[in-house]
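Thread: "does anyone have the structure for this chain?"

Original post by V.I.:
We have the sequence but no experimental structure in hand. Need at least a predicted one for the grant figures.
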Amino acid sequence: MLSHHNKVFLLRFDLHQPSYTDTSKHVSKFFTRLSEHVKARYKVKRFGYTWVREQEKAKQQHYHCFILLDGNKIQEPGYLIKAAKKYWELYYDGYLCWPAERCYHRLKRNDHEAIQAAIYHISYLAKGRGKGYKPAQAKNFGSSRIKKKQTGF
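Reply from O.Q.:
Generated one for you, tokens below.
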């Protein structure tokens, strides 16, 4: 995203659901709906996202997620959180929450300290504990596929 935009907005949140499901298709559908809504609202071309499925002690799985957007158009998380909550609660009868310490980062292309802080924050998604407890057809993770911007020669 930073190859396309000099500023990027990152929002981290979790999706909880009321019951177990054999697949994670509903999470992919959630991100499709949210992406369409956010692109139309903010007039952005790119909507980056990542989610990971996790299940430990609870009977149902939950998902750790983050989204990446053009930071020149989005600076605060308020509307994004409301929209994400609406779509998750309306369509999947679950609830959305976010980490207590900080749910978003505003990144600038050459601000390596801020980028490292954001990477550390989202690195929680990569922890091994709680992963892999799923049927063979279910995915452990999903993400958008934004390619790095190619510079001209």
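V.I.: this helps a lot. The helical segments are 25-42, 78-92, 112-122.
O.Q.: and The mean pLDDT is 88.
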